[in-house]
TrEMBL record:
GO terms for cellular component: membrane. It comes from the Eukaryota. The lineage of its organism: Eukaryota, Sar, Alveolata, Dinophyceae, Suessiales. It holds the Pfam family DUF1295. Keywords: Membrane, Transmembrane, Transmembrane helix. The chain crosses the membrane at residues 38-57, 69-88, 94-119. This is Steroid 5-alpha reductase C-terminal domain-containing protein.
Length: 358
């Protein structure tokens, strides 16, 4: 990995992504661009994403020195991708309806939530995950604070890049596939997406109910603010997803994108393109799952969330020791991070001393 202070940290993708993976991620759009099947749709989406992000995310982020604006721009970009794929895609009607409809619901739910939650979009301080990103940039990556503005622009524009390339790839393939009839994998992908979408929303609903219950009881008992969802008395029944893993909503989000990839596999295999173009797009599919996992676990997801939870909730350490971090079931040879105090206690991440010195 890159050494502290290396300029690579200004352009690296994610949190624990190898430099070779970053290089490939930057190079793979070359294959998408040279795919004749959806070249026009690819260009139109890339231009539209920039037109959305520059005024909505890049300029406000630069003026306010806040990354939080990307939480509005990214899901709106998914909605835009769904609409463009539907309008400009020349593929089979029912396939377009399946993929664009699922993406519209997926991005639309997050976009509506962000528009309501963040109104009036002033962000007096950055969201905790982006505060954590700033400390990581300066303390772990060894970069000067004077370059944080550039990293803000890179990391927010990175989302526009993702919406234009890696995340767009499955939908560009499906929306352009003219083969009549739905492949069994497309049907299975649709079913998996629905199950994952419902699971994610179920977990989010349990969290929202927990927060509302805590707020109602906080006036009588201030210690409720330190309660932990997934531990007594907030573990509910065996159907409490937060007893299965510490971030069931993130797992549901990751599985939604794996479902999109499964849904798009027949369209990828059916592309009549040069072998290197198909191989490049296929590798892009792999990177979608890889980068989402890194994002949800280490970049803006579980790692920054747990750093603040450990500081605010004393019982969270016991929760970490007994419950898996990401997967709601045991996966052999996978680190489930049952580590009390993670990430501050982990040698792989920032130390408590460094973060507390922020």
């Amino acid at each position: 990995m890159a050494q502290p202070g290396s300029l690579f940290h200004l352009v690296k993708l994610g949190a624990r992504v190898h430099p070779v993976e970053c290089l490939l991620a930057y190079a793979l759009p070359y294959a998408l661009y040279h795919c004749n099947t959806f070249h026009a749709l690819f260009r139109a989406n890339a231009i539209a994403q920039l037109a959305l992000f520059i005024p909505l995310v890049q300029i406000p982020s630069f003026l306010k020195s806040r990354m939080s604006y990307v939480d509005i721009g990214w899901p709106l970009g998914l909605v835009l991708l769904a609409c463009l794929s539907w309008v400009l895609g020349e593929g089979y009607y029912w396939r377009k309806l399946l993929c664009c409809g699922c993406l519209l619901l997926h991005g639309g739910r997050m976009a509506l939530g962000a528009l309501v939650l963040f109104f009036p979009y002033q962000f007096p301080e950055d969201l905790p995950r982006y505060q954590y990103a700033k400390v990581r940039f300066e303390k772990q990556d060894g970069m000067p604070a004077s370059l944080w503005w550039a990293k803000i622009q890179h990391d927010t524009l990175q989302q526009a890049f993702a919406n234009s390339t890696m995340l767009a790839a499955p939908f560009l393939c499906m929306a352009s596939n003219r083969a009549v009839g739905l492949h069994p994998l497309e049907v299975c992908g649709g079913i998996l997406w629905l199950a994952s979408f419902l699971f994610e929303n179920w977990a989010d609903a349990q969290k929202e109910n927990f927060l509302q219950a805590c707020a109602a009881k906080r006036k009588q008992n201030p210690s409720v603010s330190a309660a932990v969802l997934g531990m007594q008395p907030w573990n509910g029944s065996s159907f409490c997803t937060w007893t299965w893993c510490r971030h069931p909503n993130y797992f549901g989000e990751w599985m939604c994108w794996n479902a999109f990839l499964l849904m798009a596999t027949p369209s990828l295999l059916g592309l009549e393109e040069a072998a290197w173009v198909k191989a490049g797009i296929g590798l892009t599919f792999v990177f979608v799952s890889r980068f989402f996992f890194d994002c949800l676990c280490f970049w803006t997801g579980a790692e920054p969330a747990e750093y603040f939870s450990v500081r605010k909730r004393p019982d969270y350490r016991a929760y970490q020791s007994s419950v898996r971090m990401f997967f709601p079931f045991e996966v052999p040879s996978v680190n489930h991070y049952r580590i009390s105090g993670w990430p501050a206690s982990s040698k792989e991440t920032l130390s408590t001393r460094v973060l507390d010195g922020h």
